[in-house]
């Protein structure tokens, strides 16, 4: 399989040195995200296109390569092609017939040709000859350059002919690793996940920082969605997931800060800790999912007061976005279901939160706050490489595992729906139900408590984590299905 990768248009207007660096980084990222599928994948080209070639013939593996490339920042789209030595016009017709002969009978079509290099003919000459011959030889209904049912697309580059049979969309943006690093404050909801995606799409390396206000279930949920975002859109780079225990900070605010200033104070405490972490890790900017006036703490006066605690640049990619637009983007990138099923936690609930915080007043309120509590939270922050976060979480968890499921059991397949669809779990005589891991915490309590349930996933890590959590929640009827 051969692919022609077209880079994000904004890259092509950069100065030659910058452009080459971006293309070089993109090639490196493509190799990184496909290394486990094809360690010998070839990526060539250094200017405006990259040619990707794999000798892998397995259809499922090829499809996985295509899906991963569609989520690599820096690619606007890529073409799936077959390459041939360039012959005469009749030879071009024969090569096109190999791919389009069965599609053209009775259909309206057009021929599109792009050409690079020196040739004694133009692209229009090629289009006219190939179009007329395909119409005669393949029984097409006609040619329409404006509204064809089928486009026959070819490219001629010097002495090579590319016959294009698929165009796959990319996500655009700049290649990860070509720009600076950021630290995204993650809650796991719609806003923070979409903000993280937007920053990654722009080519900024994205680390994740979670402030745990509500226990293990919420932390696990945020870890899962952060891992999903990284694995789908950022796996070419190794980044960190940072979890900061903030329950004591929250308790200090609830006990000592005026009700109307609790929300603003909490955000200021989060920015203080995030800034210290970013400074330690040499990260250039902080990112939040805030949008103007979506909640009381996000008015312009409040955001100004919140930002005053840090000298770090605070980026807010969603600042002027409507909530429905954010939700629609979350649906498109695959984080909406995570957000909908994110475990609830008891945060700061102000009866009459201020929308116009005064700097002198918030300073007065924070004088009551014991800053040693904040220092302890910073000291207890856990930093984990995102590619190992799920595995490391499951290392010390011991849950009973069964290698065989019995007819009396119900096996719950907690894998992502895409994985379930591609490789469904089928067990003779055993009831198998699909329930994605991000929905498990909410939906498990609706199941028949008299049945015995076995959780299943590919590696056994996610199933152990969720079984352990459900056992701690008081559900004694859950174990892990781990076939030999």
UniProtKB/TrEMBL annotation:
GO cellular component terms listed in the entry, alphabetical order: cytosol
Record-listed ATP binding positions: 185-186, 267, 289, 298
UniProt-listed Enzyme Commission number(s): 2.8.1.4
Active site: 457
Residue ranges of every copy of the THUMP domain listed in the record: 63-167
Protein origin, superkingdom: Bacteria
SUPFAM superfamilies on file: Adenine nucleotide alpha hydrolases-like (SSF52402), Rhodanese/Cell cycle control phosphatase (SSF52821), THUMP domain-like (SSF143437)
Primary site of residence: cytoplasm
Reaction catalyzed: [ThiI sulfur-carrier protein]-S-sulfanyl-L-cysteine + a uridine in tRNA + 2 reduced [2Fe-2S]-[ferredoxin] + ATP + H(+) = [ThiI sulfur-carrier protein]-L-cysteine + a 4-thiouridine in tRNA + 2 oxidized [2Fe-2S]-[ferredoxin] + AMP + diphosphate; [ThiS sulfur-carrier protein]-C-terminal Gly-Gly-AMP + S-sulfanyl-L-cysteinyl-[cysteine desulfurase] + AH2 = [ThiS sulfur-carrier protein]-C-terminal-Gly-aminoethanethioate + L-cysteinyl-[cysteine desulfurase] + A + AMP + 2 H(+)
Pathway in which this enzyme or protein is active: Cofactor biosynthesis; thiamine diphosphate biosynthesis
Keywords: ATP-binding, Cytoplasm, Disulfide bond, Nucleotide-binding, Redox-active center, RNA-binding, Thiamine biosynthesis, Transferase, tRNA-binding
GO biological process, one term: thiazole biosynthetic process
Function summary: Catalyzes the ATP-dependent transfer of a sulfur to tRNA to produce 4-thiouridine in position 8 of tRNAs, which functions as a near-UV photosensor. Also catalyzes the transfer of sulfur to the sulfur carrier protein ThiS, forming ThiS-thiocarboxylate. This is a step in the synthesis of thiazole, in the thiamine biosynthesis pathway. The sulfur is donated as persulfide by IscS.
HAMAP family: ThiI (MF_00021)
Family listed: Belongs to the ThiI family.
NCBIfam families per record: ThiI_C_thiazole, tRNA uracil 4-sulfurtransferase ThiI
Protein name, entry field: tRNA sulfurtransferase
Species annotation: Phytopseudomonas flavescens
């Amino acid at each position: 399989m051969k692919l022609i990768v077209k880079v994000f248009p904004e890259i092509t207007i950069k100065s030659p040195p910058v452009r080459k660096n971006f293309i070089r980084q993109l090639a490196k990222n493509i190799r990184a995200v496909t290394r486990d599928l094809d360690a010998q994948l070839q990526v060539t080209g250094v200017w405006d296109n990259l040619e990707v070639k794999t000798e892998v013939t397995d259809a499922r593996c090829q499809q996985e390569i295509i899906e991963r490339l569609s989520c690599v920042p820096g690619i606007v789209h890529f073409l799936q092609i077959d390459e041939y030595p360039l012959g005469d016009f009749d030879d071009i017709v024969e090569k096109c017939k190999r791919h389009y002969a069965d599609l053209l009978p009775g259909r309206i079509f057009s021929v599109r040709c792009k050409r690079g290099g020196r040739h004694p003919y133009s692209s229009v000459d090629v289009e006219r000859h190939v179009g007329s011959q395909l119409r005669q030889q393949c029984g097409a209904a006609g040619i329409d350059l404006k509204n064809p049912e089928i486009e026959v697309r070819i490219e001629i580059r010097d002495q090579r002919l590319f016959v294009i049979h698929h165009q796959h969309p990319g996500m655009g943006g700049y290649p990860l690793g070509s720009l600076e690093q950021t630290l995204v404050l993650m809650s796991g909801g719609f806003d923070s996940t979409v903000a993280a995606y937007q920053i990654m799409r722009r080519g900024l390396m994205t680390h994740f920082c979670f402030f745990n206000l509500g226990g293990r279930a919420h932390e696990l949920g945020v870890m899962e969605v952060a891992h999903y975002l990284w694995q789908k859109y950022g796996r070419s780079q190794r980044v960190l997931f940072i979890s900061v225990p903030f329950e004591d900070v929250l308790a200090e605010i609830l006990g000592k800060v005026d009700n109307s200033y609790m929300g603003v104070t909490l955000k200021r405490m989060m920015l203080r800790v995030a800034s210290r972490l970013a400074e330690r890790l040499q990260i250039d900017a902080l990112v939040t999912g805030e949008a103007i006036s979506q909640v009381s703490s996000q008015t312009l006066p409040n955001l100004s007061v919140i930002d005053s605690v840090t000298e770090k640049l605070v980026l807010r990619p969603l600042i002027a976005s409507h909530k429905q637009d954010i939700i629609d983007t979350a649906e498109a990138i695959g984080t909406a279901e995570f957000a909908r099923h994110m475990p609830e936690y008891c945060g700061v609930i102000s009866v009459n939160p201020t929308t116009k915080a005064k700097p002198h007043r918030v300073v007065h309120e924070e004088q009551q706050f014991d800053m040693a509590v904040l220092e302890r939270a910073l000291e207890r922050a856990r930093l984990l490489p995102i590619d190992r976060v799920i595995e490391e979480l499951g290392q010390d968890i011991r849950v009973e595992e069964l290698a065989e499921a019995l007819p009396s059991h119900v096996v719950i397949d907690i894998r992502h729906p895409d994985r379930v669809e591609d490789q469904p779990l089928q067990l003779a005589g055993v009831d198998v139900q699909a329930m994605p891991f991000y929905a498990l915490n909410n939906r498990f309590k609706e199941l028949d408590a008299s049945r015995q349930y076995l959780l299943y996933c590919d590696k056994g890590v996610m199933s152990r984590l969720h079984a352990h959590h459900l056992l701690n929640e008081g559900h004694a009827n859950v174990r892990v299905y781990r076939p030999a």
